[in-house]
Each structure stands twice: as structure tokens, then as C-alpha cells.
Amino acid sequence: MEAKEVTLKQLLDGPCSYVAPSFQRPYDWRGDAVRSIVGSTVEHTVGGHFLGAVVLMDIGRGSVQKKLVIDGNHRLMTVLITMLAVRDELSKFNKWHFHEINRTCFLNDTVEKNRPSLFKTIAQIRDRNTFESLVLGEAPQSKSSPVMRVYKFAGKAVSGKSETMLVTFRERLLFDFSFVSIDLRRDEDPYPLFKLLSVPDQEFTQVGLRKYNRFSDDPEVMAIVAGGESQDVEFKERTVGAAGSSFSILRAVAGFMNSKSGGTLLIGVRDDGTFSGVESEYSKTDRGKSNRDGYLLYLNNMLRTRLDTKTPFMFFSVELRTVRNHDVCMIRVKPSAEPVYLDKHLFVRSGNQTIEILGPDLIEYVSVRWPHT
Fold first, then answer.
1. Fewest CB within 10 angstroms: 48, 91, 228, 369, which?
2. Residues 103, 262: Cα–Cα separation, whole Å
3. How many CB atoms lie within 10 A of CB 343?
4. How confident is the model at residue 254 (pLDDT cuts 50, 70, 90)?
């Protein structure tokens, strides 16, 4: 665990992705909590504005550094929504402000312009479309969500201000608002810290404690699952499909190997993040040795023999983890040093899906991804 005080600018610096867990409560701040942040933005105050702790857990480093927001999501979201209101008012004077603030606070300048890696903050699923629409300057589908309510409140507070004053608001948010960033390792259980920082006896606290208690089984796997599928994470419910084929597993691993940052494939996890486990497949993958060892041998041999590249085993590792009374298979994949083909097809991870590249796109991708070849 590492703790340090950071400004909003420092927190959002560089390619990053702060992910609200799938089981995090939707955004619903109101009243004094919102007025405090918006008021500190528009009123002259001496010194900075301390916002408390933001607890983060590292869940991967690909083209962007991904961190799970264990605690402090509402504080961070309120500051960002206020910044959106300041940005949009500033844009009335000069559109440059819109793009400059987006680059600083909201969007990653990544090579892959897919939606998941584009945003510096991945909001909770219920708030995601509204928040991302505001970031992109699009009309949100929901006009009455809590995110929109705070955006309108902040908008009224900054409306009609001069460009100079609005620039001052932007600087306050970036440099005067600070957090204590508490960073957990991928193998640390966040439950004790969440319990310590939460307000006791509140309904949300009790619900949160039950949910975060699940991390105690395997913090790393739980953090990856809570972050959801993305550019570098994919879930598969089973190893062997209905037709008796493991092609989808091969395709996913090949896609990660051909991407620029690799990724993690979890087998025995449904799309909604619940666990199905792989223990029921032991007899299907190796009838003569229907146990964990046989299953691991099956996967390693399949990947090693079916993926068409030199020494494919150097770019993946397979292990079984026990989570919520289920065996979950984790395949960690590194980017390959040369193109990896599966039955003469080239697959690539793009956003939260694996796609096949064909024709001129194939030639272009290979020449850019592996220029030495």
C-alpha cells in the first residue's frame, strides 16, 4: 500500500483509466456535498480544498494504466462534473478550451481510439453513457440522471462569468483540489480499508462491506472482474463450446498476442461478472486425467500447437485460481514479437471485442505493429 497527496492534475496525468467497479453504487451525490465542491470552485478561498481519500487498486498496464476506484468515486465524479460545466462555459469564448480540458482531464491520447481506452474515467455502468456523452459534447440520452442534475447545478454557478474568471475556476479545480491517493497492490484485499473509511450504519456501507468482502478470496481476480471487460480483459464462461470446440479461447489469446499491450483472459466468468467456474469441464478436456492438472495440460498444449508463431509459449501463462468456491482459469498474455495466426487468420483485440483483420487493413496493421517484419 502506498499513500500520497495528489492534485486533480496529478491524478489524471498521462494515459490512465479510473474504473468504477461493476458493483459500485451509481452516482447519487446531492445537497451539501455537491454545494461544497461547486462553492469552493466559484468562491475565493485561501489555500486548497482537501477532498479526502481516493482508494485505488492497480488492475493492469496496457496502452493506459487502469485502476479500480475502491472508494472515493463520488468525490472524484463531482469534481469532474464541475469541470465539465466550467469547460462548456469556457468553450463559449473559445473552442480551444473544450479540447484542452478534455485532453487534460477526460480523454487519453491513445493510438487505439476505441471507446474503452479513450476515457480517463470509466463511470459506473448506470452513469456511463450520460457522463461520456457530456465529455464528448454529445446530447445525453438521460436528461434527469443524477449526473445531469449536478452538471446543471454547476452550470448555473459558473454561467455568465468572464473568461478570465472561468480560467481561474479551471485552475482551482486542477491545482487547488487535492486527494490522498491510497494505492493498493493487485494482491491486497481492499475490504479492511473500505470498512475503515466508510461511514458506519449507513445502508450503502453495509451493502458495500458485503460486496467488498468477496475480494478476500482472491483480490487480483476480483479486481479484474469488477473492472469489467475492456481492451485488455476478456471473460469466457467455458473452455469448450457447444460444438466441442475451444476456438473462442484460441481466438481471444491470439487477439491479445497481436495487440500492442497483451491482456488477461478469465475462463469460468460470465459476461455479467458472476462465476461459473471451469471444474465441470475437467472431464471434457482430458478424459484420462479429469482434474486440474489435466485441464492445464490441455490448455497449454492447445495454445502451443494451434497458434502459428515461433515459441508461442513465451507469450502466455495459464493458471487456476479459486474464487467464490469455483476454479477460474487465468491466462495472462504478452504482446507477441511477430504476427500470430490462427488457421491462417489474424485476430486483434479492439475495444472489448476480438476482431479479424482482412485485406488492406491486415497489411497496414502488420506493417505498423511489427515494422521489423
1. 48
2. 25
3. 10
4. very high
Strand 121-122 versus strand 16-19 pairing type: parallel
Q: How many CA atoms lie within 13 A of 150 on its CB side?
A: 30
Name the amino acid, one letter, at 172: R
Whole-number Cα distances in Å, 229 to 173, 226, 263, 264, 270: 31, 9, 11, 10, 10
Q: Cell numbers 462553492 label which residue?
A: 39
CA dist 231 and 262 (Å) reads 9
Judged against a pLDDT cut of 80, whether residue 221 lies above it is answered with yes
- pLDDT mean over 218-243: 86
Query: What single-letter amino acid sits at 178?
Result: S
Instruction: Quick: pLDDT tens for 109-139.
Output: 865 555 557 899 989 888 999 999 999 999 8
Distances (CA, A) of 27 to 123, 127, 249: 9, 7, 35
Kindly report the pTM of this predicted structure: 0.78
The count of other CB atoms within 10 Å of the CB of residue 247 is 13
Average pLDDT, the chain: 88
Q: How many whole angstroms separate alpha carbon 139 and alpha carbon 342?
A: 42
**Cα 209–chain centre separation:** 21
**CB burial of residue 128 (10 Å; 0-12, 13-18, 19+):** middle
Report yes or no: 190 and 74 within 8 Å, Cβ to Cβ.
no
**Beta strands across the sheet bearing 345-350:** 307-308, 341-342, 345-350, 353-356
Residue of 251, 245, 247, 246 whose CA lies nearest to 340: 251
- Is the pLDDT at 243 greater than 90? The verdict is no
108 or 88, which is more confident? 88
- How many of the other CB atoms lie within 10 Å of CB of 149? 17
Residue for cell digits 490462427? 342
Residues 6+ apart with CB under 8 A from 371: none
Residue with cell 455502468: 125
- What is the per-residue pLDDT for 244? 72
Q: Nine-digit cell at 335? A: 504482446
Report the distance separating Cα 69 and Cα 46, nearest Å: 29
Q: Looking at residue 165, what is its pLDDT?
A: 95
Residue 321 has pLDDT above 70, yes or no: yes
